[in-house]
Hints:
The complex is a heterodimer.
Chain A: E1 8-14, H1 21-32, H2 39-59, E2 64-71, E3 78-85, H3 100-105, H4 113-120, E4 123-129, E5 132-140
Helix pairs in contact in A: 1-2, 2-4
Chain B: E1 5-12, E2 15-21, H1 26-41, E3 46-53, H2 59-74, E4 78-82, H3 86-95, E5 102-104, H4 107-117
Helix pairs in contact in B: 1-2
Amino acid sequence: MSAMGDPMRVRVVLPRTARAELAAVQAVEDLGQHVAFPRDTLAEVKLAVVEACLNALEYGAGDVVVEFAVHLKNGGPWLEVAVVDHGPGFNPSRVPTPALEEKLRARRKRGWGIELMRHLMDEVEISSRPGYTKVRMIRRWGGK
Amino acid sequence: METFELKLAEQRGSVAVLEVAGYINNEGGEAIAKEAKRLVDDGYRSLLFDLRATRIINSIGISLLLEVLERLLEVRGTLAFCSLTPSIAKTFQIMGLAQYARIFPDRGEALQGLDSAQ
């Protein structure tokens, strides 16, 4: 951690292997040891990060990069996570909000990832175009 | 890290208790769905999943739990969970799963609640 209070940054490139998303989970755990984030908050961040990574690994191409920054200034501590992939991209406004009643009747029961991210993190911002998708999420100490 | 394990821990009347440990992802969810189908086919009507040793679940694993729920609803059975971490409890609440599944703080209360419902 910088004495000047600059963000502490960690960058993880996910391997294209089974359970690759757990490498990002481990990074959250490691960062949590440096910052006084409550364990339950970190557990929620881990679930959101898993979802962002799964989407990037499934729909993206090339390297999936996860960047973490722990900010201590500007009302910190707060944790910023960015998951970047190089897939075809998508229009986030066209992703339907899942409803359990409908999912129980449907053959395809998936499609919860973005909804979970939005509820588990304080901010979720998705920018996507062909070749570049970035999911940026923020969780503040004491948020949610 | 987070090695998945599934164990049929207890059988009481039509209630079967499954202990789940580790990461519930696609593989874990498929193992759960397969075992749940077998138990329902064998006549069990309440499946209690003890998630005391599970700290991470993903949406693919959850979608497979929904298959278990769908199957139990078809036979008028009950899906129940106990010993959830706060983050997994929150995830289930976000999805609205608490409307369809019973959620208990621990196994003792769960078995009591499921027994009295039979």
